[in-house]
Amino acid sequence: MACGVRAGRALARRLRDVRAVLFDRDDTLIRDVPRYNGDPTLVQPIPGAAEAVGRLRAAGLPTGVVSNQSGIGRGFVSHMQVQRVNARVDALVGPFDTWQYCPHAPADACTCRKPAPGLVVRAARALGVEPHHTVLIGDIGTDVRAARAAGAVGILVPSPRTLPAEVREAPLVARSLGDAVDLVLAGLAGAGVATAVAAPAARTARP
Hints:
Elements: H1 9-16, E1 20-23, H2 49-58, E2 63-68, H3 70-73, H4 79-92, E3 98-102, H5 118-127, E4 134-138, H6 141-150, E5 153-156, H7 164-169, H8 177-188
Parallel strand pairs: 1-2, 1-4, 2-3, 4-5
Helix pairs in contact: 1-8, 2-8
């Protein structure tokens, strides 16, 4: 299990009540593809992703994906292309119980694009749970802020896109997707919950 400082008691209590786990897609479950991926053959799972998701399913926890896909709104990819990529991720890493993605560009000021809570709320509804009974695992601050806005628990798994400030501000940080799942399962079991902080790297464009 990840080692580090103990999480606060309030977070530990929240994790004991988890009923579903949500994931960001790019750089959380699969490698990010620059300039928006519309090609399923380019999908490369993060090492250990399938095993980590499988452990949650084995524990009886529903899973889902919540992903900003502004390449649609910007005109780089179509809904069909994104859905084909998602289907490939489902085949390699899932299956997931719900997929929710935001097609809007940032200028659209929608209520679903993370860090807004819309995707998390929709995913929770699709899974039949309350948002405050969910965990969202992602690699950047918008994932953590979306979780907070929806009343969910956010776990940050830093990637090369993660900023140092995002690591400092996250309530829970894990070194890997597997460690993040360890946090969830330990919380469900009522065990002590710990965090491990990975060194962040340079910032790049967000999806």
